[in-house]
Design goal:
single chain; alpha/beta; four-stranded parallel beta sheet
């Protein structure tokens, strides 16, 4: 039986991520991502890549965002549009349970779109050049418990279809979460 896993876009393609400047944080995430992918590949797990709504809608030169900025009807609609084909693929794999085992979905904790257990929130908005409180605004960004907007929409879409799968977030501070999905 072939094991199948659905994964956030940047699990396979870090070029889609917003540019990060915290080298220690990047190195920790990259180490866990590498360990996870090596184990998945060694175990013969097939990986289906989810879309990246941030890259698709805002491109590679975007600033970092917080989930509050994406919590709009349009962004949610676009996430659903991007996920519609993914959910159909998922249903096809599930319909052939004699051949395939869908073991779950992997997100990126901390992401405003793909966070599973953690996302980034903050009081962001407006024109950067016009703000005299920019350091305070930037400092308002914080990691909080909760899901990113695309993962919220994916959970809702799965629930609408009666599909119950494990959703795990890749998070360097909690490596056991993601690695347990492969056991």
């Amino acid at each position: 039986m072939q094991k199948v896993l659905f994964a956030a876009h940047c699990v396979l393609n870090t070029a889609a991520k917003v540019v990060m400047y915290n080298e220690a944080e990047m190195a920790a995430e990259e180490a866990l991502r590498g360990k996870f992918l090596q184990k998945a590949l060694a175990d013969g797990i097939q990986i289906i890549q989810l879309p990246c709504p941030e890259f698709v809608l805002y491109g590679s030169r975007r600033w970092g965002h917080v989930s509050d900025q994406f919590d709009t009807p349009y962004f949610r609609k676009e996430c659903r549009r991007m996920l519609t084909e993914i959910v159909l693929q998922l249903k096809e794999y599930l319909a052939n349970s004699g051949r395939f085992e869908v073991i779950g979905i992997v997100g990126i904790d901390g992401s405003p779109s793909c966070g599973v257990d953690y996302t980034c929130k903050g009081e962001w908005g407006g024109n950067l050049g016009d703000r005299n409180d920019l350091p305070e605004v930037i400092a308002s960004a914080r990691l909080v418990e909760g899901s990113g907007i695309m993962m919220q929409e994916l959970r809702d879409m799965l629930q609408e279809e009666g599909i119950d799968l494990p959703l795990k977030g890749l998070f360097a501070d909690e490596p056991h979460k993601i690695l347990s999905l492969l056991d």
